[in-house]
Give the backbone structure.
Amino acid sequence: MARRQDALLDLIYGAVADPGRWPEIITGVADHLGAIGGMVIHIPAAGNGHVLATYGRLSEEYAAVFHNNYAWNPWAVAMKDVPVNQAVVANSYLQPGQLLRTDFYADVLKPQGIINAISSRHHACSTEGGTGGFGFMLSTRGAEQAVPNVRRMQRLLPHLNRALDGTLHLGRLAEGGKQLASVLQLMPNPALLINTRGRVTFANAAAEMLLRTGDGLSIDGSGSLQLAAAFPTENAALARALAQALAVAAGTGDVLGEPVRLTRPSGAPPLLVLPVPLPPPAFELWNLLEPARVLVLVIDPAVQRKRNASTIQSAFGLTSAEARVAILVAGGLTGPQAAETLGISLSTVKTHLQRCFDKVGVHSQVALAHLLANLPIDPTGGWN
């Protein structure tokens, strides 16, 4: 028993280094508690965002039904009154038979053979009117041992909470966003990052200058830190484009509109706004930290845009060989075409391209092209 407990603790603390192990951890704890499966979850206040959850051995089909229709179910409501870091039997906070009379039970729990749960609240998942923490689902057989297994859960809670705190702290220290921000700061054209609420979390120097002048693009005067165009019809188009990009970033949409042209009251050439969805966090609950989800590139014709390969090298820390490949791919060449142009093998092109991805902080040729599109290159210069 002690050896199994040690192995479980090793598994739990492994999440700090590798957040991708949380489904395995939840499954391991579920086995320890005689549960069907489990979750770590954040349920926001109504109208304040989406449910964030990582599951272990629970049905994705019924999880979707839960997310869409039953986030604030009787268990979630009851758990708001439970002190954080205390393991409880969920049904002990309901009237006898109350759960069985709900659509939540009929539509989500009954098809999975779930009749009870062992739950606890975590402080980071229970902010701004929301609730959340750990939950482990019990069948009829598991429910018979709910009381002793609550004691088991209580002994594990300090470790689970510490591991979750460590994972969330790791998200705050993740270098991806910082690296992207440092790259954007070197770009001559305005560039911004927005989070899942559409709020601006970063603006490079060029964007700050543009926002201060309000010449075509500004921050919403309501104090919401949201982007606004100078004219109402264009403002609606901008809001729609940003919403589409956020939906793609969240995995709830698959349509991106055309870049948005914004008229400038000064009479200067119009701005062209290009929202680019960013990859999701490695751990679902890192969304609690509101990371950047969309990169907003603003093409300003008034900015002198001529840049050579040496500029790209210094901006992104690329070697000359990597810069050549990046420039050609950003210009629309395929891998084989770039290999032929440079007189190198396709495998070498792929190696250089992967290193470009790692240094720039993107995951695809499209994303790399979007970034370099804001630094137009003379492909014949700067390679010597």
User: Anything to note?
Assistant: The two ends are 66 Å apart (CA to CA).
